[in-house]
Every structure is written in C-alpha cells, then in structure tokens.
Amino acid sequence: MEDLSGHFLISTPQMPDPRFQEQVILLCAHNQEGAMGMVINKPNEEISMMEVLLGTNIPLPEGPLPPVYNGGPVEMEAGFILYNSDAEAGKSLKVTPDIYLSREAKLLEKISKGEGPENYLFLLGYAGWGPGQLEIELMDNSWLTVPGDMHVLFDTPDDLKWKQAAHRFGINISLFNNIVGNA
C-alpha cells in the first residue's frame, strides 16, 4: 500500500456521498490503520474565525480574518490548524516537508499576535477512513489522487480549488467521468 500522506483526494463525479461532492481533501495520515485528512475547500457558513477566537479568549488580530473550514464530518467540534511553517507550535504532525497539522491553542495565540505562520487554514472536524476503506473508494473511482500543492491549499479561492487541484496536473475533473471505468 502506497502512503498517500500529503496528497490531495479530489472527489470525482462518481462520488456517491453528497457530503464530499466537489471536495478536495489533503490527506494528513495514511497507513494500515486507515486514513485521516482535511477538506480544504468548504468554508463553514455557521461560525466565523472571530467567534472561534473570542470563544477561546484569544485576542483578535489586526486585519481581516480567514474563514473557518469544515474539515470533515468526524468530530465537528475539534479544531485543527493546517499551516506551512516550521514555527514552533508544540505538538504538530508533519504532513509534508512544508505542511503541518496542529491542534494546539498556543498556535492560535501566536497567529493572533502576528507571530504564527503566514499561511494557515483553521478547520473544524476531519475526514477519516478505517483500514482499507479509502482503498475501496479509490478502486470505485470516487477519488482522484494527486500530490498536494501549496498554491492550491493556501492561494486558490475555495470555489476554484476542486478544479484547480486537478488542473495543475493536466486533468479536467469535469470530464473525468468520461475517461474512467473498470476493466
């Protein structure tokens, strides 16, 4: 089994689960025990970053605040920070040489003071798969896998990430259902 940590999962038009249609997930962990990732293109319409910071008694930083993202349907109350830096943030999972995942409130405090990473996404919840579950979904053509890309992750507007993540590797995801099949 190839470790797909650091890769994007791009839902294909064959995705049967409506929660994941036109979604891009950055896989943060993938091994024999299963997989875990973060949906990176689904802003949460019900909670703002200001509410998150005020709710945790963290001072508001200067300037505009980014959106809060729905990271996935598992543990929707759990907060995560995807960021590109090696800034000290306590316990962090190294997803790629440039991308880390943290649950440390200390990192949010640093961000509010302007001392944290320049690029980050704050997410609530995550996407998870049990042993072999993701591999079955990959065989069913529910997902396309491509290497993760910092430009798509941090610089691309959310409504364009689904198409752009595939396009960066020469794939028109809108036409994907015309070229897949099972032999």
UniProtKB/TrEMBL annotation:
GO terms for cellular component: cytosol. Signal peptide: none annotated. InterPro entries: AlgH-like. It holds the Pfam family DUF179. It comes from the Bacteria. Belongs to the UPF0301 (AlgH) family. PANTHER family: UNCHARACTERIZED PROTEIN YQGE, UPF0301 PROTEIN YQGE. HAMAP family: UPF0301. This is UPF0301 protein H206_06156. It comes from Candidatus Electrothrix aarhusensis.
